[in-house]
Amino acid sequence: MSHQAFVLTRNSFSESTKKDEAYERFLSILPSCGFNVTTGAIHPPRSVLNNTYTFFIDSQYCDPAAMFSLPVVRDYPELNKVIFNVPESNIDFHYAALQHGINGVFHIEDSLELLVRGVQQVQAGNKWFSREIMSRYIDANLVSKTKPVAALQSSTTVLTKRELAITRKIADGAQNQEIADCLHISVNTVKTHVYSIFRKTECRNRVELINWFDHQFSQPQKVNY
User: Fold this and answer.
1) How far apart are CA 62 and CA 73, in angstroms?
2) What pTM was computed for the model?
3) How far apart are CA 159 and CA 177, in angstroms?
4) Rg (CA), the chain
């Protein structure tokens, strides 16, 4: 099954031959991994994003600080967002990507085999970060880098029965496709529910939602029917 992907890239390709080659190599594997690809140097309108499964961002598109302020990163928590051509040594960038809900980071130094494996995981709805990055991030005290626990708790939060079920699945580590299969609904329906869950709980990503759920689990839940 093919999924629609949009690749946001820079206008100029004269900065570095190595980076240009890495860019062409990365784009060349997307169709074979199940993506129908559209590229552009301008942020696409909402109508395009609504039909996009995964949004790939060339790390050379803009300054790293500006990248995490892009509308697609800020306003679409349930869209799969991936950044590629990132230097493996840029640890701080990887941490920031995790905190801003990025689903995967690919390195300039990655082998073709590793790129293919990672893109296949992203296409399946899973996250893709190196094991070393994830280990370092957890060791650096993940909870302290997200919202304080007190801010995550809200006794007035009202989730519907379906939203609460999906939240439990996310807390168990399930990805969108797994949730859809389990609840016999479409992936797009799952995304809609998760977006609503994020809004109601004021969580920015799955990590914060899991923390919120962990601290709410023993408390009575108000459920709308």
Assistant:
1) 13
2) 0.61
3) 21
4) 18
